[in-house]
Design a protein that fits this description.
It contains seven helices and ten strands. It is an alpha/beta fold. It has a single domain, classed as Spore Coat Polysaccharide Biosynthesis Protein SpsA, Chain A. A hairpin with a 2-residue loop joins strand 2 and strand 3.
């Protein structure tokens, strides 16, 4: 198996509220991301930041979920990726918390693929989650790459076709939320 890393450390500045707590089908958005991923990983590390205390409260009922605080959350998503991977003891599936529409079967497809790095592709577009093998941990933690995409592009990654548009859908704004809140 692998470890799930869910990134939930941002400011949520475009929604002006903690978007991980936005309700979709009577559950917080973050719960949907956790539930789908939890079906295929051993443990989940949620990397928090700006809304740390609220993220801890949102996730306290989940078993096998650990919330870690990224002190450098203001440095962007890649700092949260590194923070999460630092706590991982196995290969990881990395998923932004604001992408609740990815199917459990997609996580499993990526997990069962081949290669040290794997990404899903839907209709020619790359999405999330990204799989990174544990053998790349030290390299990722010490890279000078400015972001995850740059690190990914330095390696031979395996693109895996999936039939899941959820790999491309994130909730960045209130307009996104209103559009997709009934879409699970």
């Amino acid at each position: 198996m692998a470890i799930g890393i869910i990134l939930a450390g941002g400011y949520s500045s475009r929604t002006k509220t903690n978007k991980m707590a936005l309700m979709i089908e009577e559950k917080p958005l973050l719960h949907h991301t956790i539930a789908a991923m939890a079906k295929v990983v051993d443990d989940i590390i949620i990397v928090s930041g700006h809304h740390h205390e609220e993220i801890k409260q949102l996730t306290k009922a989940f078993k096998h979920v650990e919330v870690v605080y990224n002190q450098a959350y203001d440095q962007g998503m890649f700092a949260s990726v590194k923070c999460g991977f630092k706590h991982a003891y196995d290969s990881v599936l990395i998923q932004p918390g604001d992408m609740p529409f990815v199917k459990a079967s997609t996580y499993l497809t990526i997990l069962n693929g081949h290669g040290l790095m794997r990404i899903p592709v839907y209709q020619g577009k790359k999405g999330h989650p990204i799989y990174i093998d544990i053998t790349l941990k030290e390299e990722l933690l010490n890279t000078k790459a400015p972001h995850l995409k740059a690190f990914r592009d330095q390696h031979d990654f395996h693109a895996i076709a999936v039939d899941d548009s959820g790999i491309l859908i994130d909730i960045d704004t209130m307009a996104d939320y209103k559009k997709f809140r009934k879409g699970l």
